[in-house]
Design goal:
Length: about 270
């Protein structure tokens, strides 16, 4: 036999062991089938073994439901946010309305008070006008006047003192002897007869007994303004005349009652 002759191999053919995986998509039934075949050392090594695993498939209906659910959730969130914004706006509007109402009430009260003050002021002016008219009529008709023109006793001393100050200067806050203000002059005059009067006009206008302007006597204290809140005082000296520290331009002067009709009078003596 030639040495190059083909010599049959004594090795057994190598048995091939392999695993084959096949995947089939079950479209009609919506099932994914997985087939696995493997070789085995047993007698059934060449027989394929198939195992089927069923998984739910995402159908078109399920996808639609998921999408609708997501849309519904998003819409609900938007609705909640919108309602929260509306609630906040309503709360702010209510708060502003409350503030506006309070402001309107304050303005109304202020207007009401201003109207009441104006009414009272008008009534006071009308009262003073009526009193001045009565006083003027009394001063011009001496035959019907009950005023006493002749001062006696302490009243004469008061009248004498204030007349002696005529021509001196008016200085606010001054109490003599070279200058006076209105209440300073009255206080100094009554001090001459041992009577201590309050320092200011407001208090002097209530220091004695209120008397009618048609029944004045020398030595009575005249006041301008309301009793208890008078802004000026003087002394009645008889014959329809009074002496007072009027103002810085005129100083202490003697004038008829018609020059500046007083509001009322008090009697201390």
């Amino acid at each position: 036999m030639p040495h190059t002759a083909h010599i049959r191999s004594h090795r057994k053919p190598r048995s091939r062991s392999a695993s084959t995986i096949a995947m089939r998509a079950g479209v009609a039934g919506g099932v994914l089938s997985l087939a696995a075949a493997g070789a085995s050392a047993s007698a059934y090594a060449d027989e394929p073994v198939t195992q089927t695993l069923e998984l739910p498939a995402l159908t078109a209906d399920m996808a639609t439901q998921v999408a609708q659910s997501a849309d519904a959730t998003q819409q609900a969130a938007a609705n909640y946010q919108l309602q929260a914004e509306r609630d906040a706006a309503a709360a702010n509007a209510a708060k502003q309305a409350k503030a506006d109402l309070a402001e309107a009430k304050q303005k109304a009260e202020a207007k009401k008070k201003a109207a009441e003050d104006a009414r009272k002021a008008a009534a006071a002016r009308a009262s003073r006008t009526a009193e001045r008219t009565t006083l003027s009529a009394t001063s011009t008709n001496s035959s019907t006047s009950t005023s006493t023109s002749t001062a006696t006793g302490s009243a004469a001393a008061v009248v004498s003192f204030v007349k002696a100050q005529i021509g001196k200067s008016y200085v606010l806050g001054a109490t003599g002897p070279s200058a006076y203000d209105c209440s300073g002059l009255v206080q100094a005059a009554f001090k001459q007869v041992g009577i201590s009067l309050p320092r200011v006009s407001q208090s002097q206008s209530t220091a004695g007994t209120q008397v009618s302007l048609s029944n004045l006597q020398p030595g009575d204290i005249l006041y301008w303004g309301s009793a208890g809140s008078a802004y000026h005082v003087g002394v009645y000296v008889g014959d329809g005349m009074f002496v007072g520290a009027q103002n810085p331009s005129t100083g202490i002067v003697e004038k008829p009652l018609s020059y500046d009709p007083p509001t009322g009078a008090v009697r201390v003596l």
